[in-house]
Amino acid sequence: MQTEDIQIRIEDDRTGLEIETLKRAILDNLFYIQGKFPEIATLNDYYMALAYTVRDRLIHRWLISSQTYTKVQPREVCYLSAEFLMGPHLGNNLINLGIYDRMRQAVQELGLNFEALLEQEEEPGLGNGGLGRLAACYLDSMATLDIPSVGYGIRYEFGIFDQDIHDGWQVEITDKWLKNGNPWEIARPEWAFEVKFGGRTERYTDEKGRSRVKWIPDRMVQGVPYDTPILGYETSSTNTLRLWSAQAVESFDFRAFNAGDYYGAVGNKVFSENLSKVLYPNDEQIQGKQLRLEQQYFFVSCSLQDMIRTHCDRRGLPISIFHEKFTVQLNDTHPAIAVAELMRLLLDEHGIEWDQAWHITQSTMAYTNHTLLPEALERWAVGLFGSLLPRHLEIIYEINGRFLNEVRLRYPKDDERIRRMSIIDESGDRYVRMANLATLGSYSINGVAELHTQLLKQDVLHDFAEMYPERFNNKTNGVTPRRFMVLSNPRLTKLITSKIGDHWIRNLQELRQLESFVEDLEFRSEWRQIKLAIKRDLANYIQEQNGIEVNVDSIFDIQAKRFHEYKRQHLNVLHIITLYNRLKANPNLDITPRTFIFGGKAAPGYQMAKLIIKLINSVADVVNSDPDVRDRIKVVFLKDYNVKFAQRVYPAADLSEQISTAGKEASGTGNMKFSMNGALTIGTLDGANIEIREEVGAENFFLFGLTASKVSQIKAKGYDPMQYYIANSELKAAIDRINSGFFSKGDTALFKPLVGSLMYQDPYLLFADYQSYIDVQTQVGEAYRDQDHWTRMSILNTARMGKFSSDRSIREYVKEVWKIDPLKICPPNEPCSIH
Ligand code: BZD
Questions:
Q1: Residues 606-661 pLDDT 10s
Q2: How far, rounded to the nearest angstrom, does the alpha carbon of residue 253 sit from its chain's CA centroid?
Q3: Is the Cβ–Cβ distance between 151 and 241 less than 8 Å?
Q4: Which is nearest to 790 in space by CA: 475, 528, 496?
Q5: Taking the domains of the chain in order of start, what are their residue ranges?
Q6: Is 501 helix (H, G, I), strand (E, B) or coil?
Q7: Ligand 1 lined by 665 (C-beta under 6 Å)
Q8: 614 a catalytic residue
Q9: Where does residue 429 rank: exposed (0-12), middle (13-18), buried (19+ CB within 10 A)?
Q10: How far apart are CA 356 and CA 378, in angstroms?
Q11: Homologous superfamily, domain 484-705+770-804
């Protein structure tokens, strides 16, 4: 059938947006999908019925989008990411469909609790932190801006672990997010692909007499796609998140089985299904595990095969123009094997000559770097790599050989440079450097904030930036205001919209109009009331979760992010202990009351990060129950920080802690989410903090600490933390307090590794930044006493955050990197010719 002939025109319970229709649809789905009648339906049954009601309304738009793409054959972005930290879908889809309030009413009229139903959704936590959440924000913005796109990743059966706290320690619990079913995805087993592993290669001569290579693998896995619709805000554009799930290949199984090798056959099934079993919970620390490389290759190969099938089979286009129709954005080096895999597919499966294959590959790939930390730069031992992907290793050697010849021509006799730029690290054991492969194979390489891009060009990829300056660019991160303002902060959204209308939701720069209300007394009072009400909600949550009563008039001082030494949660702790020491010395000291709130997970194998969590909980135990403190400071560690919980936390903050060692945090995105919701930032000149401060104004930002260049200078000179310890009595007192066993029931050994690391190495310069941090925290305390002034600063933070919408980031990628035109999708039941 010709696609033009298909008219999707449905007007029934699956598309209607009226309250009565929504109610009927929910009950219908409860009956026919969940197979329950209301009297015995559980909360989850109702959640599923509601989710299917919303999904039905997405599907119509999704199919129109997909039909339009098939017909128009636009250029598309494929966002390849090992992580998509989507967070719950229901609320977001209701916002983007524009039926949030209507659905709430429909649900309430059915006698159900809308909030409880939203809460019921299991979070798809298929990511670690910033990088995975960025991918999710970008999907939202690409759909909102009508950019044809697909997100490709892995459907992990178990996402990031759930965090529990036992006796102050982090305990990891398997995240069984699929246990109640996932109403948002549709399996497409008919579009599965096979992925090969291991074995060897063979040369042969094809029918045209050309020398070709064949890969004879020793294992094979099938990738089954699961599709989730991604609807944009106030548009019909509905893109796809396609996640691959690994399954055993039937035929492979049978071969072993027929030969009598039953265990071998079952073993293959186990191997296959292990592939997409669990997300690696390490952020910014690589382990070099074989399974991780298998996961990366698995999803990259499925995704590229999928693109080629769409291009050649479905659209009937020649492979020679593949790069005109597809561009691939590599979310860090996790999918960087795509460079070698696309080469392999073009050379071995499509019989294309090397030069043309390289041209297509290099015109297709674009690479985003997210970190400069040496321990996070991916490299694979050559032996492991070759045994798993023998053909790819050959291709990489060939790419490298040709490239190094060019380098030699350009920089004769510069052997050091050759060694640095080689894809193969040969300084000791041999490794494949994935950042070099990604850089070399891409037409665009970007960092995620101005400073980060500058450091990337200066440091990690310096030689490449010198040789190919035109390929390097910056794309400062952004976050979606739909999830992180409209959905998570309905009160503030309502106030803002009552003053400036609702266009700011798709054009965040319009928040600037709020500046004219800063002088409006009533507006400031409403702003303050709202913050207070949200803080009350969080206080109730803290009471429920931790049994701690907190003062809503105190400063809600929040640090919520992954635990890592470079993020310096322990610097925050040193401030808490310093205040505590002051109160112990002078119980009548007049300090601005504060509630210190922490949230975040540590990688399960990262002992120091776990010890910092233990320290926070230990300090909390002491401080919260000391009568001398008299409720002036409280310390709260909220367990299991995830997207759902983040949405509750950002709106409630007065103060956002963004205190990484300058030069270490590539961008940060939590910093943006806090500030958009009217929190003030205490931060270093690191990542996007610099740009946030530029936007909101230095007078509305609490800056402290060394600059990135000062940090490298000090390190180059030979940094000695002990000098700071000796010279600074308050710092010494704080450290001694930990060392004495005061927070650990007399156990002086417990925090030794942490204290020792600070006193003798302090790789993240906490001691050097300590005094500056303490001084600025004192200013924060003073500033908060002038509530009226604080409110002005808070309003100005929100008003000036327009730059940090992910819509702005995506517009820049579209214009400067991808060069894709938006494609408008017709609304359902409205024949139109807008594209
Ligand atoms: O990426 C983060 C950076 O640390 C942040 O500064 C930045 O804002 C975000 C988005 O650009 N990096 C990560 O989150 N990295 C990882 O999660 C990760 C995961 C697996 C392996 C290595 C890194």
A1: 999 999 999 999 999 999 999 999 889 999 999 999 999 999 999 999 999 999 99
A2: 37
A3: yes
A4: 528
A5: 73-88+123-476, 484-705+770-804
A6: coil
A7: yes
A8: no
A9: exposed
A10: 28
A11: Glycogen Phosphorylase B; (3.40.50.2000)
Taking the centre of ligand 1 as the mean of its atom positions, its distance from the CA of residue 452, in whole angstroms, is: 12
Catalytic (active site) residue 23:
no
pLDDT above 70 for 10? no
Distance (Å) from CA 337 to ligand 1 centroid: 19
What's the rounded Cα separation, in Å, for the pair 464 and 720? 34
CB 675 within 8 A of CB 199: no
Count of CB atoms within 10 A of residue 398's CB? 15
245: left (phi over 0), alpha (psi -120 to 50) or beta: beta
Contacts 24+ apart (CB under 8 A), 206-213: 206/351, 210/351, 212/347, 212/348, 212/351, 213/347, 213/348, 213/391, 213/394
Pocket test for ligand 1, best of 296, 330, 371, 665 (most atoms within 8 A of CB): 371
Residue 479 has pLDDT above 50, yes or no: yes
Residue 388 near residue 297, CB atoms below 8 Å? yes
The half-sphere exposure of 275 on its side-chain side, counting CA atoms within 13 A, is 32
CB of 232 within 6 A of ligand 1: the answer is no
Q: Position of tokens 């548009």?
A: 235
Residue from 149, 44, 54 nearest 104 by CA: 54
Report residue 3's pLDDT band, with 50, 70 and 90 as the boundaries: very low
Rounded to whole angstroms, how far apart are CA atoms 507 and 764? 38
664: annotated active-site residue: no
Q: HSE-up of 368 (CA within 13 Å, CB side)?
A: 26
SS3 556: strand
Asked whether the domain spanning 484-705+770-804 has the same topology as the one spanning 73-88+123-476, the reply is yes
Cα 171 to ligand 1 centroid, rounded to whole Å? 22
Quote ipTM for the complex.
0.99
CB of 809 within 6 A of ligand 1: the answer is no
The three-state secondary structure class of 656 is strand
Q: Phi then psi for 272, rounded to 5 degrees?
A: -60, -50
Would the CB of 131 count as within 6 Å of ligand 1? yes
Confidence of residue 21 (pLDDT cuts 50, 70, 90): very high
CA dist 503 and 791 (Å) reads: 24
The reply to whether 648 belongs to the active site is no
Phi/psi for 377 (5° steps) reads -75, 120
Task: Specify the fold of 73-88+123-476.
Answer: Rossmann fold (3.40.50)
pLDDT reading at 5 higher than 80 = no
Could you report the per-residue pLDDT of 481-534, keeping only the tens digit for each?
Answer: 999 999 999 999 999 999 999 999 999 999 999 999 999 999 999 999 999 999
Tokens in use for 703? Answer: 């800056």
pLDDT digits (tens, 9 = 90+) for 532-588: 999 999 999 999 999 999 999 999 999 999 999 999 999 999 999 999 999 999 999
Instruction: Output the pLDDT for position 4.
Output: 45
What pLDDT score was predicted for residue 254? 58
pLDDT digits (tens, 9 = 90+) for 671-686: 999 999 999 999 999 9
Cα–Cα distance measured from residue 516 to residue 795, given in angstroms and rounded to the nearest whole number:
10
- Interval 779-783 mean pLDDT: 98
Answer yes or no: 644 catalytic. Answer: no
Q: Is 370 a catalytic residue?
A: yes
Find where tokens 């925090």 sit: 751
Q: Which of 669, 681, 684, 798 is catalytic?
A: 669
Does the beta carbon of 686 sit less than 6 angstroms from any atom of ligand 1?
A: no
For the beta carbon of residue 511, count every other beta carbon within 10 angstroms.
Answer: 23
| Cα 767 from Cα 553, distance rounded (Å) | 31
pTM: 0.97
CB atoms within 10 A of CB 327: 23
**Rounded-to-integer distance, Cα 158 and Cα 277, Å:** 6
Dihedral, CA of residue 625, residue 630, residue 632 and residue 636, to nearest 10:
20
Tell me the H-state helices in 422-481: 434-440, 450-458, 462-467, 481
